[in-house]
Design a protein that fits this description.
With 342 residues, the protein is of the alpha/beta class. It has 14 helices and 11 strands.
Amino acid sequence: MKMVIRLKPAVLTGLLLALIIAVIVAIILGLPAFQRDPAGTVEPISIGVPPNEQSTLIFVAENQNLFARNGLAATIKIYDTALAALDGMKKGEVDISQTAEFPIVRQALAKEDISIIASIDRFENIFLVARKDRGIENVADLKGKRIGSARGTLTEFHLGRFLTLHGIGEKGPTIVYMKFEESADALANGTVDAFQAQNRDIPSIKEKLESSNLVIWPSQSNQAGYEVISGMRSWIATHQEVVKRLLISLNEAERYYASHPRESMAIMQKKLNYDDAYMESVPPQHQYTLTLDQSLILAMEDEARWILRNNPTTEKTVPDFLNYIYEDSLKTVKPEAVSIIR
């Protein structure tokens, strides 16, 4: 004889409501955004960033109040350049700086007390722009020409690598060191025949020179650049909870970008006042993701060897870049994102 238990509608409704509430609570408790300090404290943090699209995840986290949701009172300071942001951090103006990995290589060669916390973007947005009316149609035509480049930057490294891969070598042309913002005028007035430029420099170059008179080569040769956030080692050691909250916020910003790419691009566009035409070129050149890859270490070692060959330095050997990586917090926040081998 089977026993049938019939529950009253009100009881069923109550059980269903309790189940829904339990599921919602479980979901909430599982979200990093709610893993706050038990005391509910709000920690200050200041971040120095350059005015470029590599800063997208930081701008999204700020715009979507992700820092605040994770118990951070974040101040975002935009510097003129990434190197200025790094210098600002070393002077104590900000806690965290955002740069490409190349400046950190130079810091390691100088034995600075600095550590990378995470990469927030992989990018391929460096181009070699040349004037056709200077007799440049093919890469081989760069021999004997004058090429503008920003000294001590990732672009300079990729220029040297590009020339070497094409069998020219850096002694073929003459490298003229200039600022990125000088690229358009230098090309237009003939100071240089070509310029190793960032993507954001190209619109101003095209304003001064006819596009039909330009030849443009992607010059990273399929080697991605890494935009990283770093801090002074002594600061990180005493602010590990702050670093964890920062990474939680940026991990949420990455997820927001993945589900809302147009809105994320609009946030960055408004912040940097980019026009619509330029914005069309941005997404294909970037992978906005929070990582610490072994490939980052390999790229930094390659760059260090180039510096040792081409730049005067008292150092003679490639640093152990594992000593310049702090991965503990990212392993906690996003363990699958860490593939560095120790």
